[in-house]
Specification:
Blueprint lengths: L3 E7 L7 H9 L2 E8 L8 H11 L8
Parallel strand pairs: 1-2
């Protein structure tokens, strides 16, 4: 079975991830990774975590 992973990004703490994460959950995402940082920054720990998780084959998809 293929797991759907989600990634949500907002650029400031004043913005809300809730709408993005809700839509990802509704789309069937088993795990959602997030970042709150400027779009200019290339350092995105949430995205790096998503990629590492996917590379290991989503073995922990039920977590």
């Amino acid at each position: 079975m293929t797991a759907i992973l989600g990634y949500a990004l907002v650029s400031t703490g004043d913005q809300d991830l809730a709408g993005q994460t809700l839509r990802l959950d509704q789309a069937g995402a088993v795990k959602v990774f997030t970042d709150v940082m400027s779009g200019k920054s290339m350092d995105r720990p949430g995205l790096a975590e998503l990629l590492a998780y996917a590379r290991q084959g989503c073995r922990s998809a039920s977590e």
